[in-house]
């Protein structure tokens, strides 16, 4: 139930009539304003309660800073009004409110979304999101849609404008960007070469007749093979970059290969692969690659499924290890000689000699190079498997690597096959519009170039200043939360405070986007024009990006890398730098608005900032120190207490049953994000209270259409509104199975049911659904 508050009874109606109006009182879910009262009417007020905690006399004026009012029944003697009980409290006159508001702000999106017929103590997500959900639809080419996606599609229009304006530019990067975008849109060219590009690649593979896996890996580089190779900071010295080798993932989530529940989907996956090969057989008119008959196709499909099933077993094992309390166990640093002993299927010295940029080879000694293996046991298992499989199976797998790595070059018939399979796999019934697909591909390739243009054209720099103030306030509040924690020893507490004090926050963008010299230097090694075929352009781009990645081996990290471009509606935390990015794309459409009140902005972007800060102390981030190095900075007894608190979140979410799809949430996979959500909303609420205390009462704002809600309630309402979205059943199953974030509805409701400030704000008590039996919290 939504319970009325406990208030003291004061018979002070004469004071109200003397010093202020009672505008803004909510009666039965609507505004009841004094100017709507009849001039000569008589009214009965029953169960009328008023509380005035403070009266100030100043300059001959009487100022009431706070008034709490509730009315059980309000009747005109000539005719009765609705006799229903008022909605719990008259929140506008609740804590941290006053009667003198200089202006109203508009927030129609939230105001039109709130459904007052839904009890917020029973289902807060529906209470806040009902209007938004009913006014939005999931595109046919997707299986989910939320407010962040809403923002992102608005940003896509802005990016599309930037790309199209580049047509008339003489800048070489702009011209390549325009060429790529237009070639991607050109269905005619893609359909004209059909399967010929892939068939030619398969023919080259056959002609070369590679006897050693190393030679094939060099040939197909930088496309992926049986091992994923990348460059990232050294976990023990984040100023240095190292090469990492890790297992590749199966094409579908490992459960599809291992869990009988997904047997039908796995069967359809085989059908999908079979149809791909059948179309390729049609394109191989000379039958130089594919022979006649279904047996050969079946063999190729079974070879692929066999290998994918083995990868699934390894992926399942890795998933169980991924949230270990000691991630250093997942990586092993080895020399080139040790690597050769551990993974002997590849001649690693030959591979690196032929794939690393020459400038890197000129400056490093391969024999002295440190390499990190991720999940070494899984890598060894893949290597052993490669030795065990027969020559025919190996040839089949190499062909599949060619097909899948160049699948994007195939014509529309293959896109139609994708749609067929996606209907079963995700429930998506239409292919993504070419305009969106090509826009996403273009901004992915040219993100560094577009980044600066986007900020210059669309980002309001005043936002950056205001949000940096918010960040300082939230960091200060986080420090207080850490200091006040009664379960941490003093030394661990000091180390935690170091992380807060040393944390770098990039608001809107990373300053690296202004380094145009570096930008031009990077793009100087990429060149293509309108005469190139799109597949050849892809190849050039892949190799260019790979070489830039390996050149990082010569760079020194200064904790200023950019995880995502500014135009993404998202935020991030980099544990190996102890750096946070609150991107320009996430600072709009209600997440942050300079015209909004403090509660709205802290409930919007403030909780996102707090979320990212908390990642520094989640199951993963807690294993890095203040400058981003792997280090155990916890006392043993405090670490044990932390693990118990962490396990509380795992159990709480594991116990949640998702009725829509008849499955339970996965509290283990989502634990890091759930901990970040909890810490984020707690610190943002605390910081909001500080900001309100510092604000002049004369600057307080009312929100049109939401006048009855107080500051605390508006904070939680905008937090919930952050995550409004729509999902198909297939989407919810997919998110439970594969995502590290909890499904939006449960992300909001489970989190807030665990929050004491929320309960107090909306007066919720057991046995309300929004009140959990046990409270889990880290800080």
UniProtKB/TrEMBL annotation:
Bilayer-crossing regions = 7-27
Q: Which cofactor does it need?
A: Zn(2+)
Residues annotated as domain Peptidase M13 N-terminal: 120-509
The record's keywords, sorted A to Z, are: Hydrolase, Membrane, Metal-binding, Metalloprotease, Protease, Transmembrane, Transmembrane helix, Zinc
Q: Which GO terms describe its cellular component?
A: plasma membrane
Tell me a Gene Ontology molecular-function term this record carries: metal ion binding
Residue stretches making up the Peptidase M13 C-terminal domain = 570-778
InterPro entries in alphabetical order: MetalloPept_cat_dom_sf, Peptidase_M13, Peptidase_M13_C, Peptidase_M13_dom_2, Peptidase_M13_N
Q: Name one GO biological process term.
A: protein processing
Any Pfam family hit: Peptidase_M13_N
Family as reported in the entry's similarity comment: Belongs to the peptidase M13 family.
Instruction: Report what the protein is called.
Output: Endothelin-converting enzyme-like 1 (inferred by orthology to a human protein)
Q: Which organism is it from?
A: Strongyloides venezuelensis (Threadworm)
Lineage of the species this protein comes from: Eukaryota, Metazoa, Ecdysozoa, Nematoda, Chromadorea
């Amino acid at each position: 139930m939504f319970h009325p508050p406990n208030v003291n009874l004061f018979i002070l109606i004469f004071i109200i009539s003397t010093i202020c109006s009672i505008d803004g009182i909510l009666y039965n879910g609507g505004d009841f304003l004094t100017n709507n009262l009849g001039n000569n009417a008589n009214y009965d007020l029953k169960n009328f309660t008023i509380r005035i905690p403070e009266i100030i006399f100043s300059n001959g004026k009487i100022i009431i800073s706070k008034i709490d009012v509730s009315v059980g029944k309000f009747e005109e003697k000539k005719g009765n009004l609705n006799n229903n009980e008022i909605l719990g409290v008259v929140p506008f006159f609740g804590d941290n409110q006053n009667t003198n508001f200089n202006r109203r702000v508009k927030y129609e999106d939230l105001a039109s979304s709130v459904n007052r017929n839904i009890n917020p103590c029973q289902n807060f997500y529906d209470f806040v999101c009902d209007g938004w959900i009913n006014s939005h639809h999931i595109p046919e080419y997707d299986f989910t849609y939320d407010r962040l996606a809403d923002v992102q599609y608005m940003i896509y229009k802005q990016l599309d404008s930037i790309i199209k304006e580049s047509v008339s530019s003489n800048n070489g990067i702009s011209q390549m960007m325009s060429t790529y975008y237009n070639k991607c849109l050109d269905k005619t060219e893609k359909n004209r070469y059909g399967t010929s590009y892939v068939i030619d690649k398969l023919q080259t593979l056959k002609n070369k007749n590679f006897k050693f896996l190393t030679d094939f890996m060099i040939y197909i580089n930088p496309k992926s093979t049986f091992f994923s190779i990348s460059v990232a900071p050294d976990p023990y010295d984040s100023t240095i970059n190292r090469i990492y080798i890790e297992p590749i993932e199966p094409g579908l989530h490992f459960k599809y290969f291992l869990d009988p529940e997904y047997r039908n989907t796995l069967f359809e996956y085989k059908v999908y692969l079979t149809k791909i090969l059948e179309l390729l057989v049609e394109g191989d008119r000379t039958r130089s690659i594919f022979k006649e008959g279904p047996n050969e196709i079946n063999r190729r499909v079974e070879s692929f499924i066999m290998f994918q099933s083995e990868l699934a077993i390894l992926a399942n094992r890795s998933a169980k290890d991924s949230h270990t309390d000691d991630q250093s166990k997942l990586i092993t640093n080895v020399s080139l000689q040790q690597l050769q002993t551990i993974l002997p299927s590849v001649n690693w010295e030959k591979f690196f000699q032929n794939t690393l940029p020459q400038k890197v080879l000129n400056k490093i000694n391969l024999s002295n190079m440190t390499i990190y293996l991720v999940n070494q046991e899984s890598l060894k298992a893949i290597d052993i498997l490669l030795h065990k499989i027969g020559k025919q199976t190996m040839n089949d797998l190499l062909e599949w690597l060619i097909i899948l790595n160049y699948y994007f070059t195939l014509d529309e018939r293959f896109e139609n096959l994708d749609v067929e399979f996606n209907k079963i796999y995700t429930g998506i019934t239409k292919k993504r519009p070419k305009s969106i697909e090509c826009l996403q591909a273009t901004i992915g390739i040219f993100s560094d170039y577009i980044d600066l243009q986007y900020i210059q054209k669309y980002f309001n720099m005043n936002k950056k200043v205001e949000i940096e103030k918010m960040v300082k306030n939230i960091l200060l509040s986080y420090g207080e939360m850490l200091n006040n924690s009664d379960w941490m020893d003093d030394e661990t507490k000091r180390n935690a405070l170091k992380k807060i004090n040393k944390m770098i926050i990039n608001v809107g963008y990373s300053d690296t986007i202004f380094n145009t010299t570096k930008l031009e230097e990077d793009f100087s090694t990429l060149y293509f024009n309108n005469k190139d075929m799109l597949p050849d352009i892809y190849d050039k781009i892949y190799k260019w990006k790979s070489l830039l990645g390996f050149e990082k081996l010569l760079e020194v990290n200064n904790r200023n890398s950019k995880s995502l471009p500014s135009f993404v509606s998202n935020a991030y935390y980099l544990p190996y730098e102890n750096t946070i990015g609150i991107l320009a794309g996430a600072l709009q459409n209600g997440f942050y608005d300079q015209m909004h009140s403090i509660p709205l902005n802290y409930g919007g972007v403030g909780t996102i900032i707090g979320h990212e800060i908390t990642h520094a102390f989640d199951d993963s981030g807690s294993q890095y120190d203040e400058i981003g190095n792997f280090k155990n900075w916890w006392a043993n007894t405090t670490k044990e207490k932390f693990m118990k608190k962490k396990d509380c979140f795992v159990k709480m979410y594991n116990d949640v049953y998702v009725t829509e799809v008849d499955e339970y949430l996965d509290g283990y996979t989502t634990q890091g994000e759930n901990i970040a959500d909890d810490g984020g909303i707690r610190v943002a609420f605390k910081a909001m209270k500080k900001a309100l205390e510092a604000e002049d009462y004369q600057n307080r704002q009312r929100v049109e259409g939401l006048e009855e809600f107080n500051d605390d309630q508006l904070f939680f309402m905008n937090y919930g509104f952050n995550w409004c979205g729509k999902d198909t059943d297939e989407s919810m199953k997919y998110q439970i199975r594969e995502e590290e974030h909890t499904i939006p509805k449960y992300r909001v409701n489970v989190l807030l049911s665990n929050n004491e400030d929320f309960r107090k704000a909306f007066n919720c008590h057991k046995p309300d659904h929004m009140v959990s039996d046990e409270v889990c919290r880290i800080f």
